[in-house]
Amino acid sequence: MNEVAAQVDARTAELATNLSALLQRVDAACLAAGRAPDSVRLLPVTKFFPAEDVAILYRLGRREFGESREQEATAKVAALPSLVRQDAESDEGLPDVQWHMIGRLQRNKARVVARWAHTVHSVDSERLATALDTGARTALDVGQRSEPVRVLLQVSLDEDPSRGGVAPDDLARLAEHIAASTGLRLSGLMAIPPLGVESDAAFARLATLHTLLLAEHPGATELSAGMSGDLESAIQHGATCVRVGTALMGARPITSA
Ligand SMILES: *Cc1c(COP(=O)(O)O)cnc(C)c1O
């Protein structure tokens, strides 16, 4: 076996081991919370890792991937089809793959993201929503996508604007704005627990906000919460999607970004 193939095999074994451990963690957390195991989806977060790793996860059966930086993600979206082509149904892209944008999104990147994102988890302002809606409607018109962009509203649980997220008081108005946008589909909430706040308390607050949102928007069932270190707590509080990077991929390379 050549060296490259041996490296791919070793990485495949590592990701397969981590993946099965994580799926067991999710199942155990569902059991502990009295929830059905299929009520929570594991979203692999592949930021900072190469498209080759995404291809390995694809071969291991994963079809949803989370990315947090537009340029890096756009490049991986373009690279993946040829990396997995031998396994793909057709050679015209990968219709079964769903890409999630989970990181902060600048308005001037919204148009590009609207071409490839199945779901954006980080919408926190009307201006960003409007830009994403414009991009999504264009992409729909020219056939770059067939469905509206699913949108999760990122909520700030500490009202520290530097970390992103809409203040809870402004949530209802932003939800109305998105519900009225034809290129977008309001699908739920997302949050990252604030530094220094116990994750249990943060997720409990998020669950309360989700209940209020659901009363007005019954279709907004998604709750994106929980990462490598706190997914059990998030599942206890109703998460439907846990975003896991480190526990699956390993430590991210040090970066200043
Ligand atoms: C990187 C990232 C994650 C994954 O975090 P881990 O602790 O590595 O699992 C989840 N959500 C967001 C928004 C991220 O940027």
UniProtKB/TrEMBL annotation:
Name recorded for this polypeptide: Pyridoxal phosphate homeostasis protein
Family classification: Belongs to the pyridoxal phosphate-binding protein YggS/PROSC family.
Pfam assignment, any one: Ala_racemase_N
Coiled coil start-end: none
Keyword Isomerase: no
PANTHER family recorded: PROLINE SYNTHETASE CO-TRANSCRIBED BACTERIAL HOMOLOG PROTEIN, PYRIDOXAL PHOSPHATE HOMEOSTASIS PROTEIN
Taxonomic superkingdom: Bacteria
Keyword Nucleotidyltransferase among UniProt keywords: no
MF term (GO), any: pyridoxal phosphate binding
Record keywords: Pyridoxal phosphate
Protein's job: Pyridoxal 5'-phosphate (PLP)-binding protein, which is involved in PLP homeostasis.
Source species taxonomy: Bacteria, Bacillati, Actinomycetota, Actinomycetes, Mycobacteriales
PTM-bearing positions, type N6-(pyridoxal phosphate)lysine: K47
